[in-house]
Every structure is written in structure tokens, then in C-alpha cells.
């Protein structure tokens, strides 16, 4: 695929994926359309060679089982996460102040709060019905806004406002229903349907991704941390031949932004459960499983930081990733990223096969930086792990920025790793 085609397809994927639940569902639908078999965790699974996918809440795992697979065949796993920082609607959310109707929200993860103000927001998430089935919900159109305070009422606004996560981040959705205006909960219930009994609903930016820059070299979009990696893993598995000396796996987890400790997070048993069932179908013993794991590789792909031109002192003085320079190879002596020398060689080989460059990323010593699913999954499974990702500006902002060449190079490197 061309750079433009990848950027366009990714932009469409982001638009379809306002929440982790949507991202997992969209990924499954695209895999099923390509011939993958959708599996139910409560049913027995086939053991025949083929292509399979399973969804657990907001997480999705898919794999290709080659004809030649045996009990000790290693895995090549691309790990990512489907969730992004934002706001989740609380129970009993209605708030009415000064003629406005608002919805009470809880901050999810670590968003750059100020970037969410004066944005047109949609509501999306998962709905559970009376019969136990679930469905996805998305207003698509914008229905809310978190308003800034006018500078006339806060002359120090440009000095950096002190934001209260409870008082200052509640979106307005209408006018006070008690004065003949809207009734947010009645409206929401009418949209969710009479059978809805519970839901997990979030706010998401309603603005579509767009190409910007004088040469249209950049893509501006929400939720690129970490849908960039989810989309790259999805495309990589779709392109993987599945007839090599390993089992290619695409694993996108939920809840990375809040620690990954959940049944659908990287700290939970989802990937371990899936790999165990695959190996059981191959007749693997405990010893066979251990041998396969030690020959396997996990490529943990999560967004990283490009050098910010206005804050260059926040970056390492000798490792300075630049836009258009290729995906980042993330390194940390303190194991916040899992890349070591052997993993560096493996990723360099994948980039060489794909014909793309890569760039080392190390945090400046005075700023510890974030972490990824890499250390969590590696600790749980014992599989050798490499941390990579595409470089961004404005990470955790409501709208992040990527160079489209880096987006395409990440796709190529991931596809080469899984091939």
C-alpha cells in the first residue's frame, strides 16, 4: 500500500473506533471479512490450521496457524492497546447549573486536560441489554462540549489555569430540563433502547482525522496512542502468509492507560489463555510450551515521543527522533521498555527486510517517561520482548500528530516481523 492509502485507511479506522470496544470490534470484523474464523471463548475451539480471531470486551487477539505448526513452534506476537485517555460517564450523571445541563464524568487515564476544552465531543461505548447481549453505541455526531472560561473572567488564563478534574471537566449537553429544556438521561435512554440495562460510555473527539502541513506530511487525529499500533498489527496479520516457521499473532489489549490489570488487559490472562489453547490443540506438553515461549518474540508497539521543537530540553541530548525518520526502538536501562541487544537485532532485521529505517528512543535522565504493555506481558509470559512504536507530538492530547511516512514505515516493519 502507498503512504497515502495507509494514512487514509488508518484515518477511517480511527473514525470507526471512538472507544476500545469499537476498536476491537472493527478489527474483528475486518479479519472475519478476510476469512478469519470468529471464536467464542465459552466454546471448544478448532485445532485445524487456519486463521482465527477472538474478542474479550475491548481486547482482540488473532492468529494464523500454519500447516507445519508443531507443539514447539514459536510465536511472533505484535502487542498493542486499544484504549486512549479521556472521560467516562459516571452513574447518575445529570448535573444542572445556571440553566445548563451537564454530564458528570470520571477522568480515564492521563489526558492533557486543557486540550479537551472547547472541542466537539461524541458519546460512544458498550451497552448491555436485558437478555445479556451487548451492542455498541456511538452518537457519531457531536453532542457535548467542555467549555473554557472566558478570559474576561480569568485574566490569568494564559498563565496556565489550575484545572479541577471534578468541577472543571464536566461537558455541557443541553439546557436545564427543569426549565423546559433538554433532559439528557431521557435522551440517552431513548438512544440506547428500551432493553438497555447498563453501559460503559465515554466521550470522544468528534472531529475526523485530517492531513495537514504545507506538503500534507502530517496526520492530525485523536486516539493515535495507540490505534496507530492496533492498525499496524491488524494490517500486518492480514498480510502475513501464515506458512512460515512461527505462529503470527496480533494481540490488542484494553486498559493500558490505567495499568493493564484487568481480564482484558496485558496484565490479565487473555493472551496466556489464547496461547495455551492454541498449544493444547497442537498437543503441547508443559515442557513443549516452555520451549516454544523461549523461542518466541513479542513486539510491544506503543506510541513514543518525537523531539518537541519548543521543548527540546525535555529530550535526550544524543537520541533525538525526528519526524519521517522511521519507527522508534524504545530502550530503558530500568526496564520501562524491554528492548535489549538481542531484540534490537531482531527489529533491525525486520526493518531491513521492510526497507525502512528505525530510530532509538531513550528518555532523558531527569524524566522517567511512561511505560508500555511490554514489561507487563514479558513478566507474565516470559517471552522475550521488544518495545517499539511510532513517534508522535502531543501524546495524550485530544488530538495528536504523526508524520505519515512514519505511519507507513511502522506498518511495513510490523508486517515484516509477523511474516
UniProtKB/TrEMBL annotation:
UniProt key word Isomerase: no
Cofactors, names only: Zn(2+)
EC category name: hydrolase
Alphabetized Gene3D superfamilies for the sequence: Aminopeptidase i, Domain 2, Zn peptidases
Identification of the protein by name: M18 family aminopeptidase
Residue stretches in coiled coil: none
EC number annotated for this UniProt entry: 3.4.11.-
Family of this protein: Belongs to the peptidase M18 family.
The organism of origin for this protein: Curtobacterium herbarum
Any single Pfam family the record assigns to this protein: Peptidase_M18
SUPFAM superfamilies: Aminopeptidase/glucanase lid domain, Zn-dependent exopeptidases
Record key words, sorted: Aminopeptidase, Hydrolase, Metal-binding, Metalloprotease, Protease, Zinc
Gene Ontology MF: a single term: aminopeptidase activity
Amino acid at each position: 500500500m502507498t503512504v497515502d492509502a495507509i494514512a487514509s485507511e488508518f484515518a477511517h479506522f480511527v473514525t470507526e473506533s471512538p472507544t476500545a470496544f469499537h476498536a476491537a470490534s472493527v478489527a474483528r470484523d475486518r479479519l472475519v471479512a478476510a476469512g478469519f474464523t470468529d471464536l467464542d471463548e465459552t466454546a471448544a475451539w478448532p485445532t485445524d490450521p487456519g486463521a482465527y480471531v477472538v474478542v474479550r470486551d475491548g481486547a482482540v487477539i488473532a492468529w494464523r496457524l500454519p500447516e507445519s505448526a508443531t507443539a514447539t513452534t514459536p510465536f511472533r506476537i505484535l502487542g498493542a492497546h486499544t484504549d486512549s485517555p479521556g472521560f467516562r460517564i459516571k452513574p447518575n450523571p445529570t448535573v444542572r447549573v445556571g440553566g445548563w445541563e451537564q454530564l458528570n464524568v470520571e477522568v480515564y487515564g492521563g489526558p492533557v486536560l486543557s486540550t479537551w476544552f472547547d472541542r466537539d465531543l461524541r458519546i460512544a461505548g458498550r451497552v448491555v441489554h436485558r437478555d445479556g447481549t451487548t451492542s455498541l453505541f456511538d452518537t457519531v455526531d457531536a453532542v457535548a462540549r467542555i467549555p473554557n472560561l472566558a478570559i474576561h473572567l480569568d485574566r490569568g488564563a494564559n498563565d496556565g489555569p489550575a484545572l479541577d478534574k471534578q468541577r472543571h471537566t464536566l461537558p455541557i449537553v443541553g439546557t436545564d430540563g427543569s426549565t423546559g429544556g433538554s433532559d439528557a438521561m431521557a435522551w440517552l435512554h431513548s438512544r440506547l433502547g428500551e432493553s438497555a440495562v447498563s453501559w460503559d460510555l465515554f466521550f470522544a473527539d468528534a472531529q475526523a482525522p485530517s492531513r495537514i502541513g504545507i506538503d500534507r506530511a502530517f496526520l492530525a487525529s485523536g486516539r493515535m496512542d495507540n490505534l496507530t499500533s492496533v492498525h499496524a498489527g491488524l494490517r500486518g496479520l492480514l498480510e502475513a502468509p501464515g506458512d512460515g516457521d512461527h505462529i503470527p499473532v496480533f494481540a490488542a489489549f484494553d486498559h493500558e492507560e490505567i495499568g493493564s490489570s484487568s481480564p482484558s488487559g496485558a496484565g490479565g490472562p487473555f493472551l496466556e489463555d489464547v496461547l495455551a489453547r492454541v498449544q493444547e490443540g497442537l498437543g503441547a506438553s508443559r515442557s513443549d510450551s516452555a520451549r516454544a515461549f523461549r523461542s518466541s518474540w513479542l513486539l510491544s508497539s506503543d506510541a513514543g515521543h518525537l523531539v518537541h521543537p519548543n521543548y527540546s530540553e525535555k529530550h535526550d541530548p544524543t537520541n533525538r527522533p525526528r519526524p519521517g525518520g522511521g519507527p522508534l526502538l524504545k530502550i530503558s536501562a530500568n526496564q520501562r521498555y524491554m528492548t535489549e541487544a538481542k531484540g534490537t537485532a531482531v527489529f533491525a532485521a525486520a526493518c531491513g527486510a521492510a526497507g525502512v529505517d528505525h530510530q532509538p528512543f531513550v528518555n532523558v535522565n531527569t524524566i522517567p517517561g511512561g511505560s508500555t504493555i511490554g514489561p507487563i506481558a514479558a513478566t507474565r509470559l516470559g517471552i522475550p520482548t521488544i518495545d517499539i512504536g511510532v513517534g508522535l507530538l502531543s501524546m495524550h492530547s485530544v488530538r495528536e500528530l504523526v508524520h505519515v511516512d512514519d505511519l507507513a514505515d511502522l506498518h511495513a516493519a510490523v508486517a515484516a516481523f509477523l511474516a
